[in-house]
């Protein structure tokens, strides 16, 4: 069996490794544009701020690791066509300073072309000192540029923008993060929760400008100012953290059906062409709450999809479930997590919801080191939990995972109150913050019924 | 409505406060032996070691707090009879140096008499320098005695014994913890997991002696040696952490039916006498996995039961669910958690199980501060998760809670692999340790099928 994988992100490499796990004899080829393999793009901001010592340390595997597994990795190669009726991938690669066209046959093809940064078409985008944050090379360039400057403007206040902004501030720059929408974390948090994080960031000296898109970037040879709404921000660097778009061009060329957002796949991660699978940021998936198609550009989704595709190709039955899009981010000392539907998204989708909201503590109140925790539960009119947002200085990722299981198993607020939460004074409250939030929601649900 | 509560632990006080929440007019009386109210007994070891500054700080509420809520608390009173056919509680209380017998009528009675330390009937148990660890007074006595001595022996290597042993070592004593059974944490951990904690404790200088009960305690006026198996341990103090027994005498006197272990209650927390409820450490409950009656001597159980009893008495329908007995403990830098069935208990109950076991990390491996985490999943032959044990230096309590929900909702290992776990390098691994453990279990299940 010949398997070709296009792309060396988490989805592509997981798929390749898992095919090897199930099939010792498969001929596996990974073709990638990149020079560095198997690194963690989510870690780039933390190298900038010095939390992680070097870019080298976020590379999880070297090409040799794959060679040992019998996986042939072709790096710095550009796939320019997929000829699906001939089961053939055509690519261009440099050998001894020359560009050579090559092709490879497949029985199964896995498209894992990922996402590319979306760069809004504004004036000055090509000036020196304008960067994106996607690859390890981007990170290296940003770090180098940051060494001799004073100011940075980050466009986009999602996780990557805020993490990068905070870390550059920590590195010593004066930082402004701007966002087109009127709140930070516009996709994962509701405005009330976003405000808690915003205040923390402002307290740390990161300036936030909301409700305006970047207008233009000005400068002679290099960036000098960024115009955002009414504000003209003097700056030595602009970082575009304006989101990522699925890269679907190759899948389209191959004749794979595209959906509203990205490559369409079934629950086996199979495209409309039976021997072509697609995984990772380039595909669209089903939202577990709304039932509508959506994107899920997360490393964990990529890994799960890579495993599912590999299993199916290896003849084992495996399905990828609809997503809740669990996410977590660390900004300075604060952890921000979300899973499922926000109140904002519920309103947009016409889903009537009630929320439970509390400020509690991560440990017994008398225990030194206990920290405030903010939880917002979103549930439907029957009390079923549809989403959750959590902000605290510890334990957020694990709490998001707890809610991911609760939401996917249809747990109600009332049921949650009756559930067991472990307790020891150094580690938790005797009445868990989730239970307190669920009790708040139940109280409101009860009041709703009386109305 | 007149409600009398006997006992001022978490169960009794939660019941009293919740009745007030639902019924502004109820006459509520709490009768307790204790002087101090509403403190956290689980916190006592941490005061001994100095983690928590004072015993005063673990008192959550003062008598005045209850008075303000219109709850009459009678302290330092001994209930000596319940005359259930007259709906009357008889108690003895000291007033102006005199013991006076009093009685109080009830419409509903809540028995929350808790548990009493089980002290094995060995020679020397009444010598000076022998202590139990149950009440805040016990804690105060231990701390005072510990000030001018060098050695301590703790009998019993459950959570309380080990926490106390470690904290006394931290306080500056030479400490030996002894256990009758051949492992520490004999109820919540399997031997393989217990050994990880044992090695940590030994590394911290706490001596552990296993597989022998305490034989006798010797000394002239005060403790001088403890004989445990072949070993004669020279010591200035002996702490009996040999478990807790439900206090059922009053319930029995009232005519409430007793079960195998403690007071029998239905899922409303009602005893065999309809207007008498019982909650907390004095009742027995149903084990969610085996379906058999068991004990659940945990603060969180007590709180949930107190709420359930209060709701039912207030005319609202509420049920207490079968238990998984989630528990977590902090010993030095290590957190130890468990939920559901152990492999040992499965074997005792004739339940065939497969385990998934891994050592992973709490954060991305390149992220500074990531720590080892040990997870053991216990699942039945269909892959359904029945229990989990976790040891790490962070995030254990929240992970136990995640598994509590997964187990109570019947999640299988295979299902767990497909579930979402949030990821950010500073906070988690891209393939969550739970997923790694579940994959290990699935691998074994698959192999079992082939056999």
What can you see in these coordinates?
2 copies of one chain form a homodimer. With 451 residues, chain A is of the alpha/beta class. Chain A folds into 3 domains: 2-42 and 57-116 and 245-313, FAD/NAD(P)-binding domain, CATH 3.50.50; 119-242, FAD/NAD(P)-binding domain (3-Layer(bba) Sandwich), CATH 3.50.50.60; 333-450, FAD/NAD(P)-binding domain. Chain A is built from 12 helices and 25 strands. In chain A, strand 10 (151-155), helix 5 (159-171) and strand 11 (174-179) form a beta-alpha-beta unit. In chain A, helix 1 (10-22) runs parallel beside helix 8. In chain A, 53% of the residues are buried. Chains A and B meet through helix 8, strand 21, strand 22 and helix 10 of A and helix 8, strand 21, strand 22 and helix 10 of B. Chains A, B: Pfam families: Pyr_redox_2, Pyr_redox_dim. Chains A, B: Residues 334-428 form the Pyridine nucleotide-disulphide oxidoreductase dimerisation domain.
Residues in β-strands, percent of chain A? 25-35%
How far do the termini of chain A sit from each other?
A: 64 Å
Largest sheet of chain A: 5 strands, parallel
Can you say what the CATH homologous superfamily of the largest domain in chain A is?
FAD/NAD(P)-binding domain
Number of domains of chain A: 3
Q: Tell me the CATH architecture of the largest domain in chain A.
A: 3-Layer(bba) Sandwich
Oligomer: homodimer
Quick recap:
Chain A has 451 residues and is an alpha/beta fold. Chain A is 27% helix and 28% strand. The model of chain A has no long low-confidence stretch (mean pLDDT 95).
């Amino acid at each position: 069996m010949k398997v070709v994988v296009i792309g060396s992100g988490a989805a592509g490499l997981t798929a390749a490794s898992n095919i090897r796990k199930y099939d010792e004899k498969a001929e596996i080829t990974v073709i990638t544009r990149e020079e560095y393999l198997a690194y963690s793009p989510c870690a780039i901001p933390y190298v900038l701020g010095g939390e992680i010592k070097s870019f080298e340390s976020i590379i999880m595997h070297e090409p040799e690791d794959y060679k040992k597994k019998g996986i042939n990795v072709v790096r710095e190669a550009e796939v320019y066509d997929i000829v699906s009726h001939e089961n053939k991938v055509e690519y261009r690669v440099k050998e001894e300073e020359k560009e050579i066209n090559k092709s490879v046959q497949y029985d199964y093809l896995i498209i894992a072309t990922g996402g590319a940064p979306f760069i809004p078409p504004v004036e000055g985008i090509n000036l020196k000192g304008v960067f994106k944050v996607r690859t390890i090379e981007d990170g290296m360039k940003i770090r180098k540029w940051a060494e001799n400057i004073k100011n940075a403007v980050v466009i986009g206040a999602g996780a990557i923008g805020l993490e990068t902004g905070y870390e550059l501030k920590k590195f010593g720059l004066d930082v402004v993060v701007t966002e087109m929408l009127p709140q930070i974390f516009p996709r994962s948090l509701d405005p009330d929760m976003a405000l808690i994080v915003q205040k923390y960031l402002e307290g740390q000296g990161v300036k936030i400008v909301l409700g305006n898109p970047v207008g233009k970037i000005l400068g002679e040879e290099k960036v000098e100012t960024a115009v955002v709404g009414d504000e003209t921000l003097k700056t030595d660097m602009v970082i575009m953290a304006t989101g990522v778009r699925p890269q679907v061009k190759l899948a389209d060329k191959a004749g794979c059906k595209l959906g509203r957002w990205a490559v369409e796949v079934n629950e086996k991660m199979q495209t409309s062409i039976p021997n072509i699978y697609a995984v990772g940021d380039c595909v669209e998936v089903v939202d577990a709450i709304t039932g509508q198609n959506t994107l899920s550009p997360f490393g964990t989704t990529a890994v799960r999809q890579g495993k599912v595709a590999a299993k199916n190709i290896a003849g084992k039955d495996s399905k990828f479930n609809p997503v809740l899009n669990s996410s977590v981010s660390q900004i300075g000392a604060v952890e921000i997590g979300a899973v499922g539907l926000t109140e904002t998204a519920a309103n947009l989708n016409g889903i009537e919801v009630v929320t439970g909201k509390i400020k509690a503590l991560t440990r017994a109140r008398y225990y030194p080191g206990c920290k405030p925790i903010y939880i917002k539960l979103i549930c439907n009119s029957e009390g079923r939990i549809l989403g959750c947002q959590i902000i605290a200085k510890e334990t957020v990722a694990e709490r998001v995972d707890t809610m991911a299981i609760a939401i996917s198993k249809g747990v109600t607020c009332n049921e949650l109150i009756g559930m067991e939460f472990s307790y020891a004074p150094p580690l938790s409250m005797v009445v868990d913050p989730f239970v307190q939030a669920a009790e708040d929601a139940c109280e409101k649900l009860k009041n709703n019924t009386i109305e």
